[in-house]
Known about the structure:
22 strands, Aldehyde dehydrogenase (NAD+), 2 domains, six-stranded mixed β-sheet, oxidoreductase activity, acting on the aldehyde or oxo group of donors, NAD or NADP as acceptor, 515 residues, Ald_DH_CS_GLU, Aldehyde Dehydrogenase, Chain A, domain 2, Ald_DH_N, oxidoreductase
Amino acid sequence: MQREYFDSDQVDVGDSVAEKHEQVASEAVGDEEYGMLIGGEWVESDSGETVESVDATTGQQLARFQKGTPADVDRAVEAAQAGFEKWSVMSPQQRSNKLLEVADRLEDRRSEIARLDSLEVGKANQHSMFVDLEVAIEQFRYFASLARTADEGRRPPASPDRLTYTQNEPYGVVGLISAWNFPAMFVAWKMAPALAAGNAVVFKPSSRASLSTLEMARTIQEVLPDGAVNVVTGAGSEVGNALTGHAGVGKVALTGSTAAGQYTMQNAAENITPVSLELGGKSPNIVFPDADIEKAVQGSIIASWFNVGQQCTMGSRMFLHEDIYDEFLEAFVEATDDLQIGDPLDPRTDVGPLIDHDHLDDVRSYVDTALEEGATLAYGGEQPADADLDGAPFYKPTILTDIDNGDTIACEEVFGPVLSVLEWSDYDQMMAEANDTIYGLASGVWTTDLENAKQAADDLEAGTVWVNTYNDMFEPSPYGGYKQSGIGRELDESTLEDYTQQKSVTMNFGGLPDM
């Protein structure tokens, strides 16, 4: 595939990096121009226009995909309605077997799909390969097992001549919208439970990262009935709005920014469509004076710098107790400095580039604002000095101290590798500051004292509390947010219920009740 740059003034990586990316792209990218999956067919958009998919590191064009329109959403919803008629009538065991087959086929393509996210998003390949795809494949297997074992509800009879029971039924067509920071993983987070519950889906990936979704859809389509899975690519302002406000969609689920969640709720309100939202975060990561310092430092490296901080759960506000503040911060800076920043395709890389230069500018702006408001730069705050990476949107992990909890950097989600460090001494004051945020997605606690752990877990206003671990999502447990971090839960058994609507049935075998 010929190398093509979206902005040659911004992108000028070394020849060895560019050539490596070209080679991997030629092996991993399936088509020079992708269609949209509608009703089992790969079709062009009603607009006749395509959008460029770009390598986050080199600026190289990877492929083109369709610029979808509301008319395409109409086609996809109609196809999904037909697909629902074929998919929903399958028995739970049959649906389970199909989803297990999807997992097996994705396992066979794991390396290829992981490399697509490393190219298009800049994810370190070791993360996309052994975290994102691992979780994605497991989600299909997990919800396949739940589809097979889901039971109908029963209630004790009110009288001998009455029977009351409940049953959970699929919505029909579910609209799913994903974010760019974990493209392949979010396909499974959204599709697996929706399909396991018997729904057909219309999926809209982020226009910043569509290739892994399209390749996963290619694999899924080989297994499921035509129309059970449909993918419409394009902008949120066109495709996303049309999907969330569509009268033929029975349920909407979105992963994205809080602003995107607000728009989704507004659109869905037109038809009173139920929504599930996984949104932003400004998560506290609290270190007690009795913590195992070495373990807490390594865990906080994961909390802070995994996926270059482009994660809603990032522990972006670190609360260090005054007794261990200096010792911990010194060790944390040293551990951060040991991270390998570089080409995401290099297996040694810990920290890859940001998604693009616009996002790099946003991250820089937040750091500049923090320094203007009185913060101290303890580490980072610049691009790495590496000629091979020049021009690519890299930014060193950045640690800021002398932060007030009301500062911009401590209140707003940066969505990048920028950490605010706050010192604490009084537990009640610290906890009040930890909870003083519009968000409530995740939190971390580091302590060897069980009473500290239990008290903090009770007091934190967050959907997830990790104690002596962080970003630990390999075991099924409910994941979702408090406050403006979202509505609903993902990753566990309750998610299956989120994609169904409950019906109550009462059968009367005797006389009617008195008026």
